[in-house]
Amino acid sequence: MYELVCELFPICRSITGAGFRQSLKILDEAMGGGILKIHSIASGSKVFDWEVPAEWEINNAYIITPNGEKICDFKQNNLHVLNYSTGIDTELDLASLQEHLYSIEEMPDAIPYVTSYYKRRWGFCIKHEDRVKLKEGKYKVFIDAKHYENGVLNYADLLIPSTQETKDEILISTYLCHPSMANNELSGPVVATFLAKWLLELKERKYNYRFVFVPETIGSIVYLSKHLKYLQKHIKAGFVLSCIGDDNAYSLIHTPSENTLADKVALHTLKDKNNFKEFSFLDRGSDERQYCSPLVNLPVVCVCRTRFGDYKEYHTSKDDLNFISEEGLQGGLKAMQEIIMNLEVNEIYQNTVFCEPNLGKRDLYIDHCKREGRVENILSFLAYCDGKNDVLDIASKLSIQAYELKDLIEKLKFHKLIQSKNIYKGIQ
Amino acid sequence: MYELVCELFPICRSITGAGFRQSLKILDEAMGGGILKIHSIASGSKVFDWEVPAEWEINNAYIITPNGEKICDFKQNNLHVLNYSTGIDTELDLASLQEHLYSIEEMPDAIPYVTSYYKRRWGFCIKHEDRVKLKEGKYKVFIDAKHYENGVLNYADLLIPSTQETKDEILISTYLCHPSMANNELSGPVVATFLAKWLLELKERKYNYRFVFVPETIGSIVYLSKHLKYLQKHIKAGFVLSCIGDDNAYSLIHTPSENTLADKVALHTLKDKNNFKEFSFLDRGSDERQYCSPLVNLPVVCVCRTRFGDYKEYHTSKDDLNFISEEGLQGGLKAMQEIIMNLEVNEIYQNTVFCEPNLGKRDLYIDHCKREGRVENILSFLAYCDGKNDVLDIASKLSIQAYELKDLIEKLKFHKLIQSKNIYKGIQ
Amino acid sequence: MYELVCELFPICRSITGAGFRQSLKILDEAMGGGILKIHSIASGSKVFDWEVPAEWEINNAYIITPNGEKICDFKQNNLHVLNYSTGIDTELDLASLQEHLYSIEEMPDAIPYVTSYYKRRWGFCIKHEDRVKLKEGKYKVFIDAKHYENGVLNYADLLIPSTQETKDEILISTYLCHPSMANNELSGPVVATFLAKWLLELKERKYNYRFVFVPETIGSIVYLSKHLKYLQKHIKAGFVLSCIGDDNAYSLIHTPSENTLADKVALHTLKDKNNFKEFSFLDRGSDERQYCSPLVNLPVVCVCRTRFGDYKEYHTSKDDLNFISEEGLQGGLKAMQEIIMNLEVNEIYQNTVFCEPNLGKRDLYIDHCKREGRVENILSFLAYCDGKNDVLDIASKLSIQAYELKDLIEKLKFHKLIQSKNIYKGIQ
């Protein structure tokens, strides 16, 4: 995964334009090619309360100082140009230039990441330590950028079908509009890509899996405007992936109600991980803002390693290839795989016999991972199979991951000691 | 307010009689005159399980010691006479006198406040340090008091109308039957009086406000016997004011269920105040006992500074003009004003657009009182406007007072980004 | 009670056979004789998922060592023989013998209690300190035991009728299949016996009381197979008694839902006892496993002093007559009596008058056990008598045992100030 991040890192992405399209193609190739469906919507289209912005083209940008030095060179680091900047080619004095410069006094050696999608202006982002050295004089500024009102905005999706007859879906959504930064955001799309590859190889999938790759905010708004009714009907749980490649924490941002299946399975899976942090929807920041907005109201949480805004490198040139690691990305991928395994095993079961069954005569009287001197898991699982608790509930009581109960459940189903509540027309 | 307390302080009040009527008139004048409606009910009237007691008249009372000294002089301090005492004019020896004396051994320099409303007897209240000095000999006791079986019990109310079309009411109830004590109880009626003045000057009132000034217990029982059905239908929240003039704590006594609008708004308003104390209905003590009794079941909490019984000066001559202060009274008044502002702003709203609205195009993209790095309040407010949370719920999540959201709500309503759920016949 | 335990202690019980029958008869005599109904079910009968095992007869068992010493003598301690062992009469060398010996390395001076009900084998239980001294050579082993396939399994019950017209029942269940051990299990049947004696002498019983004495697990399964529908309809709360004769703790094992009347009354009664321990159903271990199994779903908790498995003497010869005491048994009996008194007094009441009643005119204005300066219990009780709280709820608020409110409730009923909600067709 780290290699794929490295390949994507240098590209100058924005919410529209060639960089975004190129990045989608690289992800598609990583999945095997011809997997992702890439869509476009015309600039100027109305989407709910918004309008799709013009397509942005950027080729070059730099500043020539009074003594002829080239600084803020887009070709050195594309963060130097204000993302979605208008083009410019002029000379001006230092005071006028200052109005177009962005830097962070507290992090003097970092180039900040600044955007201006909905107010057209031009600008450069610069390390504060370089900015303070700028001398009086005439500066030449050059940005070779254009906005095409007849352009498009791109996004992609992928539906991995269930192996059963169902329209129930799990949503995985991530965004790809940030230029050269690693944790936020290349970690999200890259983990999503490898998660899709893993899912494609599974022999059985209870759910359909919908992967969505969009530019942040406007992209998820576009996607929702196209598919709202269908998603509201079929999405059972969803996950926004962001900042999921560092090796520090595991973070969960809840839905507003905190009680959807997505909240439940993510909390069950992550709560015992090292340095787990639980956030309310007040601390949201990515596309869960759209998915969970009141009239949309989808069951979508956000899963991160270190949450956006909880690390100081966030939205600067310091969020670079050193900030993330293969281990960090693998940890993020594993967490999502566990969430999915827990969803796949989850179901409501009910006992089929009165009283405890006779395990001995079925050769089941083995202690399945006995813990802390408590009664055996197999009997405890049956004790709570009351047609109301689901497997997540019971696993939480037993302090294990739901997917760890998979073999036990298969054995009990084989011996017809439990029946899925869905098809249970029963005794009580 | 402190001046008004001083004016009322010397009057000898009881549950019936001239002192109570005179006090009501002083409060009415403080409101501007002709504001309060003063009512009377005949002694002997049946009210639920009770009977209205006879009217009490008291003119003078004292004891002459064997050596001719006048002690327990009513004209020095009206607490000296047992409140509601029968008249007496006789001579007796010390042993017989002792049976009619009340003092507090643990507070030797305080005159206790003692009443005997439902058993006719005479008596004097005396500092314990004076009592122990009494010598053997003949004592002359004189109490010029009468009970009129054909008298009346008085109480007053005031309805400040809503500026909207509604019968919904907020109840403010306080009692005025205690003689010369300051926190319990002149603080309650005086804060209520100034709260009424403030409400009368507001340009807009969503609710009708009903103020009730009664003698404690029997007065609220009388009031409920007259208006029960109407109050049960229209009171949305109510507040008993008592012991609200000292400068030590803020206290809330909950209803039995602890989940009415009154509990919710009072807790929201007071919980972050200095030295806030929360009590269950087990710790009740004033007219909330009647308002919250099971068959009455009104949503009425009691709001105090230091709760009755939580300060040792309670029900003694030490609860005097030094125990309270203008600052203490102002703190009590402000707490009640905040409670009312929070009630006035409270409502259930719902978003009108899908996804987050485009704030930029409406020039709303300003950080309204940003806090602790969380997403801006305007977006957070919208995120929780789901047609279920009310403004109190959302403000509690944002850790601010509901009334602080007033401007923001007005802006969102102006831009039609939210609609009141009451009139919302909508999309979902 | 201790004497009765001593009488029962030497008998070799098992899940079937003469020892069990003899023990039932001793309990019946302790109740007065002819009280318990003793039932039998044929070996081989199908009961739910199980089959009733053959009847076991044991007369003698021992080992003769190579030097002629008799060890593991059944007549010295019946724990020496594997419970439900097959018969044997042979000679073998030490290595072969070892395969049939059971001991506890960590408790070298204790004979373990081992059973083998569902796999036919023979064996001896021995102190580990004796086992390690065994020398090479020929051992003679002798067990005079038989299994009768045409035998029976016995159990007993007793229904103590309510003095009112009701079919509502309280279940007390205990088991009697363990041989010479004291806390587990003679404490359970002996406390149940004395509890039945106490109940038989009460003048009034609101409920019917059903006592069940069974061999553990298979016995309760048999009982449920006979009476399931009736028990599901009429049992309002039930209690399994086990390990209830030591003097260390009080323990409650909840039902899976933790919110039945049995959970509520047991928690209310026991929670303030010295060294109280609360367990979830995960820590179950006795017949509550059957009573609370999902399709049976009876409201039955388990009440212990020190829970099975929480003391190291459990299931060894160290759980002897020294481990329990008359005080321990009395504590267990008293806890169960309090639970029953709390059930008997429990009911939902509602006030009959609006506002607080006038207690003075009924001479009720006495402070019934005033506590911590709170308003008097009589008024507090009335304040919460809202037709929703039951007496257990109110007593918990007042921090007293429900049965302590009995006199107060009788007085209020006498004065018609409260009415039972069951018969209340009332004002609201």
Short description:
The structure is a homotrimer of 428-residue chains. With 428 residues, chain A is of the alpha/beta class.
How would you characterize the overall build of this protein?
Chain A has 428 residues and is α/β, with parallel strands linked by helices. Chain A folds into three domains: 2-53 and 151-345, 3-Layer(aba) Sandwich (Aminopeptidase); 55-148, Domain of unknown function DUF2172 (Glucose Oxidase, domain 1, 3-Layer(bba) Sandwich), CATH 3.50.30; 348-420, Winged helix-like DNA-binding domain superfamily/Winged helix DNA-binding domain (Arc Repressor Mutant, subunit A, Orthogonal Bundle), CATH 1.10.10. Chain A has twelve helices and 19 strands. Chain A has helices at 2-8, 18-31, 94-98, 128-131, 182-201, 218-234, 261-270, 288-291, 326-345, 377-384, 391-397, 406-414; strands spanning 37-42, 46-47, 50-51, 55-64, 70-71, 88-93, 101-102, 124-125, 138-148, 152-160, 169-175, 208-214, 235-241, 250-253, 276-279, 300-304, 348-351, 386-390, 418-420. Chain A has an eight-stranded mixed β-sheet with strand order 1-10-12-11-13-16-14-15, sandwiched between helices. A four-stranded antiparallel β-sheet of chain A has the order 5-4-9-6. In chain A, β2 and β3 (50-51) form a beta hairpin. Mean pLDDT of chain A is 93; it is low at 367-374 and 423-428. Chain A binds chain B through residues 48-50, 118-119, 217, 220-221, 224-225, 228, 256, 280-285, 289-290, 292-297, 309, and chain B through 350-351, 353-358, 360-361, 373-375, 379-380, 382-387, 397-398, 427-428.
